[in-house]
Amino acid sequence: YRHLAKEKDLRRQAALSECIYTALDKSRDLVIITDHAHLVQYVNTPCMQVVGYNRDELVGKQIGMLHEATEVASVYRQLERGLEWVGRLKWRTKSADMLPLQTHALPFTPHPSLAVHYVYLSDNPLQTHISPRGSLPSIRKASYDLKSIISEGSARRQSLAKLYNLPLEAPITKVLSLLCAAQENASAGVVQMLEQVMDILRTTELYTSHLKAENLRAEDPLTTNLIAALVAQGPPSAVMPRRSSGDSVVSKKKAPSKRSNIVTMSMSKELKEAMDKISSWDFDVILVEKLSGAKPLVYVGMKIFTLFGVPKTLGIDERTVYGWLTLMERHYKPGNTYHNSTHAADVLQATALFLLRLRAKKLLDPLDEACCLIAAAAHDLGHPGKSSAFLTNSGHYLAVLYNDISVLEQHHAALTFKLTLREERVNIFKGLDRKMYTSARACIIDTILATDMFRHYEHYTKFVTVFNKSPDDNQDAKGEGKTNEAENNINPEDLMLVKRMLIKCADVSNPTRPLPLCKQWAKRIAEEYFSQTDEEKARNLPVVMPLFDRLTCSIPVSQMGFMDYIVNNMFEEWDSFIELPEMLYHLRKNYDYWKELHDKGITGTEDTNEHLESVLPHTILPRT
Questions:
Q1: How many whole angstroms separate alpha carbon 119 and alpha carbon 122?
Q2: CATH of the domain at 555
Q3: Which residues contact 113 (CB under 8 A, 6 or more apart)?
């Protein structure tokens, strides 16, 4: 009886397997399943139709034959760590064409005693779906031979799948996922309405009041004005008004002097050679720190502000810019091992390079760029070398002043404007008219506040949900003229998301720099966190980051964790906005380096304690 029951169960499982294979063959997605060694075990019919190989040509072969080795290595690494991978992957067809497809790869173990398998799910370019409105069309202009367009709805699902894999989940992610699911089999009219709903949900303030004109009483203007003043007006918007290329933002009565105010800075031969690499991702700001006498922000700032024409944009002379940068540098604390003016110069250089390498060249106008650069230079101004949580736990006066909310970021922004407006000779905003100053101030504050890591997943999630259109989708299908028009007509609120993501990526870009720089920054931030933990223990305060105990900390583990949970996904999204391939290259190489150290049992703390002098700021004397 048991034998018959087992045989019946096997037949049932076989029938179920046949049903599953039939369903996979009828699926519109491309499906490939490999074993733990990445050898193809199954491929469905739609996949064979797209890549041009038959089943016998693929089964038993390395899936790597369908990809570039350098590109698929990161996928393998993610899967072998037991994590899912979502992103754009190029598939090689039998005719040697490279077809970029949105792909979701995931590890699967049918039973604990069985080896892991890897499942690859890719969008089918031969299918046509309803394509809702895109947020940023043609931001990457590719030139592939295959003129296929992946549906935006599918791209949205893949983006939301990436968000689903994050360690935290926002309610908006659940809502958008449900709405996307509702769109699947809905009529065109319902799909359009749901698209409008999702656009509304992506706005910054869902509960911000807007007066409805039809409800206003013309016979009672006093009450109407009162209500408008009380409930419908908030702080100035951080959205910069869009201007034509000929518009000026400079106040006519405060036009810059025509007399020469060019600042000439003396530099040694070595410093000049280091500064000549400022437009490279390999730029060594730590070397500039050493060669400049611990004044990297002034040198880097003058070079970059001049390169972007910031004095002309703001209607000021170079001496004002020089005075402002000198003042900013003086208010960074040189005793901090990480949050000092060298970090500010590093973030400023990364911001400048991101602006130079934007794929959509007309995305930001000169005043937008100037605000991003100003925010980058001042984003950690007056940093005490301790976290916001430490300030709150210790009852620091800054925590009391800012009600325990984004304490450091509020302090950085407020101090920036307090110092800037205090003296005419350093007031870089004195050339702007009132309207443009108000907009610029709001933009700079918003950009600095975006560096608060407490709101990281909020900013990242919103960026992904708004800019989820696959970057290769509109490959010149609408023509260059319409592409440029689309770039200029991007929703200003969405543009603010780009500026937030830009400074966020610049702020945490250390793991994407060449390995020697990555190692230096890792040791500097570890030492600053060690000092905080030491003080928390000495004062019997809650230990905010127990991992950073100098006696037990593993720097490789801390770096890998930071990359896994913060850096990797964010920079993969940001990579579609900029032309800087070396960024992800270094990120992957650096991860492998830290993993190798961890596998060897090297914590990095011994090296930090014994040779700290070689990686700390080259001087900690107060600046004059």
A1: 10
A2: 1.10.1300.10
A3: none
Domain containing 56: what range? 18-127
Residue among 339, 412, 459, 586 flagged as catalytic: 339
The verdict on whether residue 456 carries a ligand-binding annotation is no
Q: Is residue 335 part of a domain?
A: yes
When divided into structural domains, the chain yields a total of 3
Examine the domain organization and report whether 58 and 174 are in the same domain: no
In a domain, 347, yes or no: yes
Q: Could you tell me how many helices (H) and strands (E) the chain has, helices first? A: 27, 5
110 and 163 in a single domain? The answer is no
Q: Which of 146-150, 154-158, 290-294, 616-620 has the lowest mean pLDDT?
A: 146-150
380 is in an annotated binding site: yes
Q: What is the per-residue pLDDT across 345-382, written as a single tens digit (0 to 9) for each?
A: 999 999 999 999 998 878 899 999 999 999 999 999 99
166 and 120 co-located in one domain:
no
Residue 8 has pLDDT above 90, yes or no: no
pLDDT at 314 over 90: yes
Question: Cα(98)–Cα(47) distance, rounded to whole angstroms?
Answer: 14
Whole-prediction pTM: 0.69
351 appears as a binding residue in the annotation: no
- CB-CB contact of 194 with 153 (8 Å): no
Domain identity same for 425 and 484: yes
456 labelled catalytic: no
Position 533 in a domain:
yes
Please tell me the predicted confidence (pLDDT) of residue 177: 72
The residues, any chain, with a CB within 8 Å of residue 264's CB and separated by 6 or more, are none
Q: Within this chain, do residues 154 and 119 fall inside the same structural domain, yes or no? A: no
Whether residue 342 is annotated as binding a ligand: the answer is: yes
In DSSP terms, which residues pair with 89 in a beta bridge? 101
Instruction: Report d(CA 442, CA 283) in Å as an integer.
Output: 31
